[in-house]
Amino acid sequence: MSEPKFEVQMLHDRVMIKVEKDSGERRSTGGIVIPATVEEANRLVWGEVCGVGHHVRIVKPGDRVLFHPGDQFEVEIQGENYLVMRERDLHAIASERPEHGTGLYL
User: Fold this and answer.
1) How does it assemble (predicted)?
2) Which of the listed ranges 30-34, 69-73, 96-100, 101-105 does the model predict with the highest average pLDDT?
3) Secondary structure (3-state) at 79
4) Are the beta carbons of 102 and 95 closer than 8 angstroms?
């Protein structure tokens, strides 16, 4: 007999995010190669919203969001790692809805 499957629902103002894979080394705007082993303490990362709680007001599943990886709780579901955090801990949303944007595009 197989194990029952349960749907994961986020509660309150929580957001579940799948972190975009880091390609390893990066290149600065000046062309300097920064190795993957270099960690930056205050570096923000992008991820995709996979689920939201009932009290989340702005982001929706599918949005790309910017956040600090230190403000997170990590969970593994079906072999994939996700992060869970509060909506207020997100710094920016990259979306096609240009309502209140910065004029910068990814």
Assistant:
1) Heptamer of 7 subunits arranged in a ring.
2) 69-73
3) coil
4) no
Q: Residue 42 and residue 55: Cα distance in Å, rounded?
A: 28
Give every CB contact of residue 89 below 8 A, 6+ residues apart in sequence.
67, 68, 71
Contact 16/10 with Cβ under 8 angstroms?
yes
Rounded CA separation 72/31 (Å):
32
pLDDT digits (tens, 9 = 90+) for 60-100: 999 999 998 776 788 888 888 899 999 999 999 886 666 65
The residues that bridge with 17 in the sheet, in sequence order, are 49, 83
- Cα 74 from chain centroid (whole Å): 11
Whole-structure pTM value = 0.70
